[in-house]
Design a protein that fits this description.
Blueprint lengths: L1 E5 L4 H12 L3 E8 L17 H14 L3 E5 L1 H17 L6 H20 L4 E3 L4 E6 L2 E6 L8 H4 L4 H4 L2 E2 L7 H10 L21 H9 L4 E5 L5 E5 L26 E6 L4 E5 L5 E11 L10 E6 L6 E9 L2 E11 L6 E6 L7 E11 L1
Parallel strand pairs: 1-2, 1-4, 2-3, 4-7, 8-11
Antiparallel strand pairs: 5-6, 8-9, 10-11, 12-15, 12-17, 13-14, 13-16, 14-15, 16-17
């Protein structure tokens, strides 16, 4: 096949591209320029789309002997990822920009352009598995569950997955680094990227305030209704947050307070004890079924609400694009705006991704 290898400049995408070459495909490498001012993005171990990352990707492509290009997706990245991120926080929700980036940039914008240019598939360095069972394509967890990225890929459609390749799905990260070393790839020991690439200093609160300005409101005790303090905007908080609340006095029981809920219209941030964080029911919308099969009737699942962690057994029911999740045991710190991913346990072949949806409310 003609394969477009998305090369971020890290070890995973470099080895994924190398394996696509070894498989006999006609491979072209491409690095996505996601910022009009790449110097403002994180560098070193925290980068994923900086100038130095583009150089690392180019060097890897040279060693593999494949053509290499840089595609400018900065405008679309700003519109689809950054502006969505800001808007979600302004509305009192907690988005995951990596989920949005995978959905809107790597597997919508990139795949759309690749198909227009005659490519058959896009290969990435994600840790996830694709398998065809009874003629249907399935998305599953990777062999290395510690690096599994099926959570951030669960919003992809069957059509998008049919043109995707994840060559690292059956591998462990340590083996990928060893392979990169054997291939002479300079990124073999490059640290993984972390955090949000478009917030250079990691100060999300200040980043949002620079774009949204100050929107003063009150910090209120969820149990008594007492006003405990003032804040400069609900966008500076997320459900489950403990630090940086700006409240001097501890709770009546002497224990820390946590953010329990956000009310963007009134500007109210309600806080309380950790016991108030437990969630038994999750309501979610915009359901996507990667296999093309929606759930029929109450279904026993394992659900995950964060890229790493936040996992529990549940009974899930779907009604069109709406999903209702009844947890078998409470989860803490579940916030509207997050994505809930539904899995069917299958230890032998990797848990099967049944679907995903965006959390609208909890109780």
């Amino acid at each position: 096949m003609r394969v477009l290898a998305a090369m971020s400049g890290g070890v995973d995408s470099a080895v994924a591209a190398a394996r696509a070459v070894d498989a006999g495909h006609d491979v072209v490498g491409v690095h996505l320029a996601l910022s009009a001012k790449p110097g403002t993005l994180r560098t070193g171990s925290r980068g994923c789309c900086t100038i130095e990352d583009s150089h690392d990707a180019r060097r890897a492509a040279d060693i593999l002997g494949i053509p290499f290009y840089i595609w400018d997706f900065a405008e679309r990245f700003t519109e689809e990822v950054v502006e969505t991120f800001v808007g979600e926080y302004a509305a009192g929700r907690t988005p995951n920009p990596c989920v949005t980036c995978n959905e809107k940039i790597k597997f919508e914008a990139l795949l759309e352009k690749a198909m227009a240019l005659g490519f058959d598939a896009v290969a990435t360095g994600h840790y996830a598995r694709l398998a065809t069972v009874d003629g249907e394509l399935e998305l599953r967890r990777s062999a290395d569950e510690g690096k599994d990225q099926s959570y951030v890929l669960a919003s992809l459609t069957p059509e998008q997955l049919s043109h995707a390749m994840f060559p690292l799905g059956d591998s462990w990260k340590s083996d990928v680094r060893a392979e990169a070393e054997q291939r002479g790839l300079s990124v073999a020991n490059k640290p993984d990227s972390h955090d949000i690439c478009f917030i250079p200093d990691g100060d999300t609160k200040q980043f949002l305030e620079n774009r949204l300005g100050q929107r003063p409101g009150q910090l209120v005790d969820a149990e008594t209704g007492a006003v405990l303090g003032q804040h400069t905007g609900v966008h500076g908080f997320t459900v489950g947050q403990r630090k940086g609340l700006g409240i001097d006095a501890p709770a009546t029981d002497g224990r820390p307070r946590y953010v329990l809920s956000l009310e963007p219209v009134s500007g109210t941030v309600k806080v309380g004890s950790s016991t108030g964080l437990g969630v038994d029911v999750i309501e979610a919308d915009r359901a996507i079924w990667p296999s093309g099969r929606a759930l029929e009737g109450p279904t026993e699942c394992v659900v995950q609400v964060r890229a790493h962690g936040g996992i529990a057994e549940a009974v899930v029911e779907a009604d069109g694009a709406h999903v209702s999740v009844q947890l078998r045991e409470p989860l803490r710190g579940v916030a509207p705006g997050q994505v809930v991913v539904l899995y069917r346990p299958d230890a032998g072949a990797g848990d099967l991704v049944l679907g995903s949806a965006k959390i609208s409310s909890t109780r």
